[in-house]
Amino acid sequence: MPMTHRRAVLTMVAVTLMWSIAGVVSRHIEAARGFEVTFWRSFFNAVAMALLLGVLRGPAKLARSLREGGRTLWLSGVCWGVMYTAFMLALTLTTVANVLVLIALTPLITALAARFALCHRLAARTWGAIVLAGAGIVWMYAREVSGADARQLLGMAIGLAVPLAAALNWTLMQHNRGAARQDMLPAVLIGALLSALATVVPALPFVATAADLGLLALLGVVQLAIPCLLAVVVARSLSAPEISLLGLLEVIFGVLWAWLGANEAPSASVLAGGALVLAALAGNELLALRERRL
Fold it and tell me: Tens digit of pLDDT for each residue in 99-143?
């Protein structure tokens, strides 16, 4: 059954908190790089997803869902796979700040996709929150973002696939809320499998240490499998623009994790911009609560 709006919002906040650990954890990986980091994270994600869905759905029902899944399920799976792969590859080529800035484009792209693909009319408060939060992101990283060299430019070009795939994915889930309400949880497993298959050959030969594998298992389970399942559940109760807007909290949490776990103290502009993003999110939710009570 769909969650209450309040519980869905709180769950989405928890999801962004778990998503946000990727940057700081990846900075402590010793030997694995590039495709190998992406492969192991997706591999552990796939294993965890198979176990979790096996418990939640049962092996027979899960196999039937994968076998009989329609275009929406598999397209969503491709979106998850692109997000998993592009995010981690980008993170190995450019800075955490650069990748998070690109992710911050998701609300605007999602809002436009929902408007034109689903003909959804967005509340003025949602557009205002998107603009205000976007201004906060620009303020946060105006000095940090740099793409002068080829490696950074490549990382940002790859990273741009994340908000594009995320916007399409949230829009698909929004569309799926009508009619038959197809079970979309297996799409997360499909995405993990596709990402692992796409990166296993380029990842060879493996050089990850035991410590690396432990960190990548943490990312695969805690940073991907659990929050992505929760995000699919939340998508039954929140609109696509709301989900992507709340997803901006990943940027704020990512800065805090880097500060606490990698000694990357945020600048005054990051703190000020972060406050603006939080104000936009809080304002949007307070106005939504007021509208529901009227």
Answer: 877 787 787 777 777 777 666 677 788 788 888 888 887 777 676
Angle at 154 (CA atoms; ends 150, 156), nearest 5 degrees = 120
If one counts every other C-beta atom within 10 angstroms of the C-beta of residue 176, the result is 21
Q: Which residue has the tokens 């408060």?
A: 125
- Give me the residue label for tokens 């939710």: 285
Whole-number Å distance between alpha carbons of 223 and 25: 10
CA distance 165 to 162: 5
Cis omega (within 30 of 0) on the bond before 202?
no
Cβ within 8 Å of residue 209, ≥6 positions away: 30, 31, 32
Q: Dump pLDDT digits (tens) for 263-273.
A: 767 667 767 87
Q: Please spell the DSSP secondary structure of 103-148, one letter per residue.
A: HTTHHHHHHHHHHHHS-PPPPHHHHHHHHHHHHHHHHHHTTT----
Indicate the pTM of the whole model.
0.79
Give the alpha-carbon dihedral of 206, 212, 215, 216, to 10 degrees: -10
* Pairwise CA distance, residues 213 & 225, whole Å: 16
